[in-house]
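#lab-general

N.A. 3:47 PM
ok so I finally got the sequence cleaned up, no stray characters, all 484 residues accounted for. can someone with queue access submit it? mine expired

B.Y. 3:52 PM
send it over

N.A. 3:53 PM
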Amino acid sequence: MKLFPDISTFIILGPIAIKWYAILILTGAFAAYLLSLRNIKKMGYPGELVDDFFFGALLSGVVGSRIWYVLFFDLKYFIANPLQIFATWQGGLAIQGGLVAGVIFAAWFCHRHKLNFFRFADAIVPNILIAQAVGRWGNFLNQEAFGGVVNESYYKYFPAFIKRIMYIDNAYRVPTFLYESVLNVLGFFLIVIAIKRFSKPKRGDLAYAYLMWYGITRFWVEGLRTDSLMFMGLRMAQVTSVVFVLLGMAGTLGLFRKLIKGKKPVILFDLDGTLLDTEKAIIATYKQLISEKRTDYEFTKQDELSVLGPTLKEMMPKLIPGEDPDLLIQRYREINNELHATHVVPVEGAKELIDELKKQGYPLGIVSSKLTETVQLGLSLFDMQDDFKVIVGYGDVSKHKPDPEGIFKACQLLGRGHDDVIYVGDSDTDILAAQNAAIYSVGLILNQDRKESLVKSAPNVTINSLNELLDVLKEDISWTKTTT
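B.Y. 4:20 PM
back already:
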């Protein structure tokens, strides 16, 4: 075993030499992975999805980078020496080829997993700048990707180790690797902080900013290099950079949004207090149940407010301790079903709103803490049972609101991802479920006693009547928690 046998090698283990180039490429990729993992988890997606994506993206990126290099460096040489095509440890990866291959893989991956390509790109693409910045130091230690000859005085203010390693073929060379590395880091912070945090980017804008920044950076740096890949007398990296800049500008100006018509967002509703006014039925049911089980207990106004929203499993031990919760829930449902016909009415404007949304082509669903059959019972009283493509009830999930499992399942049953989804509810529990799914939340304020807790949960927007939802839908935004 030999550690650091030369500038470009990290370690030699018998016949195997591990190059700094490979280590730094993988380090940069891992840094981009961690940043992307954080972003995508905020979007409500599991970490496993990021793992699957990055494995494929890294593999396709390396293959694409090598193919690009082979095509434009010396294709005749590689045809004559085919085994050299696989010698990536010696250098020879063209990042722009990797980006093209990565985009092709990402488009396939997003289609397969029903993800919005541009939202996914915004979460990942700016992080590639960090991977590129780290990877350029691999070029440095390989003593490649450098510029023309300069005088020793050029390195007056540079660290001594850069000056030493940039002495190549008996001359000092321009450290183009360093310029590109620094500019990539600067671009990352400008895009992620200045654009993302201090402006209101539309979906895809961060990826477009990457294309423009990296395109301009690479065009300038490539002009300083002496080892450019050429095509018909032109520096291939500069040609590709111009294409990147033009694509980024077109995207920023909204040309692709005009060409690619997005689907209408999925609209999911809570049931109780949102579509059907079941408050009287819920309170009457609890009162009757408590009168049967706790004759010494007075059901107060505070109790009435507390039972609106939480699941039965949460409330039974609090209101009737010492009894079997499952038996209490069974009795509650028997009483509640009996009271539906006399105590349940539609929320004002509910039927008219649903009819209009169906007419406009919105996919509609219900995510409720009630059993699916109870939801259908309530809807059937007002001929609304066929208005929703999917109903996810209490028994359909293992985790209940505010956990987002019900929302995710509804989207899955509709054959959609959750990149454009609106959830309408009347309680803080509903809003938290939407936020945990990273989707757009609409708080419906009909009960003034519950207004404070609903507003405090910070929905994207609050409305005072269901028909106001039609005005909300006129906004030109992305229907996620962050509206980007």
